[in-house]
Amino acid sequence: MATLKVPVHVPSPSEDAEQLRKAFEEQAMTMNCFRYSLAGWGTNEQLIIDILAHRNAAQRNSIRKVYAEAYGEDLLKCLEKELTSDFERAVLLFTLDPAERDAHLANEATKKFTSSNWILMEIACSRSSHELLNVKKAYHARYKKSLEEDVAHHTTGEYRKLLVPLVSAFRYEGEEVNMTLAKSEAKILHDKISDKHYTDEEVIRIVSTRSKAQLNATLNHYNTSFGNAINKDLKADPSDEFLKLLRAVIKCLTTPEQYFEKVLRQAINKLGSDEWALTRVVTTRAEVDMVRIKEAYQRRNSIPLEQAIAKDTSGDYEKFLLALIGAGDA
Amino acid sequence: MATLKVPVHVPSPSEDAEQLRKAFEEQAMTMNCFRYSLAGWGTNEQLIIDILAHRNAAQRNSIRKVYAEAYGEDLLKCLEKELTSDFERAVLLFTLDPAERDAHLANEATKKFTSSNWILMEIACSRSSHELLNVKKAYHARYKKSLEEDVAHHTTGEYRKLLVPLVSAFRYEGEEVNMTLAKSEAKILHDKISDKHYTDEEVIRIVSTRSKAQLNATLNHYNTSFGNAINKDLKADPSDEFLKLLRAVIKCLTTPEQYFEKVLRQAINKLGSDEWALTRVVTTRAEVDMVRIKEAYQRRNSIPLEQAIAKDTSGDYEKFLLALIGAGDA
Fold first, then answer.
1. pLDDT at residue A28 greater than cutoff 80
2. What is the pLDDT of residue B33?
3. Nearest chain B Cα distance for residue A302, angstroms
4. Which one of B133, B148, B214 has the shortest CB-CB distance to A209?
5. Any notes on this protein's domains (chains A, B) (predicted)?
6. Whole-angstrom distance, CA of residue B46 vs CA of residue A85
7. Angle separating helix axes A290-301 and A275-285, nearest 10 degrees
């Protein structure tokens, strides 16, 4: 369930586009007239928040389209010019279409200075098959190559062995489960893990090709038959980075809200906090399952996510994130 | 270019469905009245050929839909009941929607008694990214699991290592080529092949993720820089089955008409000929690139494909195949 709040009466895309244009122009004037004063800034940014943090993906796409037609400029480019820092990144990411946003995040994750196996894993494992497919299509369109080839090219060793099949997957999404298979594959997983063969091709095959429903059945069998949840057995060496990632794969595939809760918790608790992670999780999940992530957060941290974010962030960035996670009215 | 010939004035799907129904009913009558005579059979089967071998995929789909609505029966099931042997398989395969047909062929290829790494490779490498994607969707819908999981489950060792990435691929389809990359990856391929590391993950990565245009550029560089076409270097041990498959991958990705020419040549030249291969290539390529395959066949064998097929097959099966490869009028 989404936390995004859309007003009952939504202005037309052209009204929204016009308001955004005004916000930019006012700001430009303000900047000319009172270059060294910050007066006026707040108003404009509030308007941007009021509009963009309260429109769903289809509505934001329409606004972008209408904006480009009316003013001959890309809304995203204008936002980029007008905004700065964490607020800028949050607004830009959220305004993007979900598939384009994921393609952008995945592309960053294959680049040298922003490389991240975790983000690639997160996109591969927490999105539905069709969402992931749309990410791949957006990747083709934007970068003129495939997500898989960039992931394969920019990873090595055991990480490549795991990540390439994960991003390549087009899992079956139905609820049908084969119990005989679940039993036999639970045993395979247990045998390999007992022998510490964590990168065995059978382990990779099972986690990267089976449907989420089938995998769930397999892991339930694992738990019942061998006495431990698989992620407990995967903690043999708590400092092993590959094992950490593999546990996250399991979590992301079976209980994504718990996975995202943990990312948020670590981002917020970090000294100085990790705004990139915070922004990523809030912008990508606000329209998907943020209600459940918030429940998981409250349960685990005994403090509402809104409060934790408010304590940790400030200004327009804070306002924007809080709007996305459903604090206040639309 | 397709060899399939569709008449200028195509009857409506309901007229076609009605004609097919009549063909079945006449046949049923014939079978009752003259059980031990073959009189009458030809006519009905000729009608089936006249219709189904001269309608494109969209038209055949419409006929199936209208047929099911009008008679409450699946056209494919009726064809299965009425026809036999190679003719039956050819008509059934061709009548299927291309994506459903490939899903069916791929599923057979993962089954114990019809298992074939070659057919999996052929489907993965000769179809466009979007065609392959539609095969995967059809596979989900029909078998309630994913193509990748069945391929991964039913293959082992080096074959799994190659085939799973190939069927998982969603290659970029644009013409853009990165020449620096082509050079560096040509060198990687040459190094690995010189060391006989044919199943090296870099080799698999390059052939399974790069766009066909990019791969082509890489292989051209290979040829220019190292003096041999890659497939020549991959012939070090001519009896090695994995190397054979790897050469076929390269051929299928870069010159599919040559690949299919060879499959046809071997199917026809085999003692007793290989009807399954013949049927597969003719039914899957008639609407795609059979014109070029026929050219390649004539060039390589100095005999037109029509003549070779006519010499090697007979009866309705022969008539159906010849109709599909464009012999005679629509």
1. no
2. 42
3. 40
4. B148
5. A pair of annexin repeats may form one binding site for calcium and phospholipid.
6. 73
7. 130
* A146: nearest CB among B146, B164, B209: B209
Identify the architecture of domain B13-83 in CATH: Orthogonal Bundle (1.10)
pLDDT band at A30 (very low <50, low <70, confident <90, very high): low
Whether A134 contacts A173, CB under 8 Å:
no
Q: Residue A172 and residue B209: Cβ atoms within 8 Å?
A: no
- B205/A145 Cβ within 8 A: no
Per residue in A248-284, pLDDT (tens digit) is 999 999 999 999 999 999 999 887 789 999 999 999 9
Look up the ipTM and state it: 0.78
* pLDDT tens sequence across B73-87: 999 999 998 898 999
Q: Pick from B279, B257, B259, B258: which is nearest to B268 by CA?
A: B279
| Of residues B284, B294, B255, the one with CA closest to residue B89 | B284
A256-324 belongs to CATH 3.90.1150.10: no
CB atoms within 10 A of CB A322: 20
CA distance B187 to A294: 51
Which of A162, A172, A178 would you mutate first to test chain B, the one with the most B CBs within 10 A?
A172
Q: List the single residue in B144, B168, B174 with the smallest CB-CB distance to A169.
A: B168
Q: Is A157 annotated as a binding residue?
A: no
CATH number assigned to the domain covering B179-254: 1.10.220.10
Q: Find out whether B272 is annotated in a ligand binding site.
A: yes
Chains A, B: CB contacts within 8 A come to 90
d(CA B180, CA B187): 11
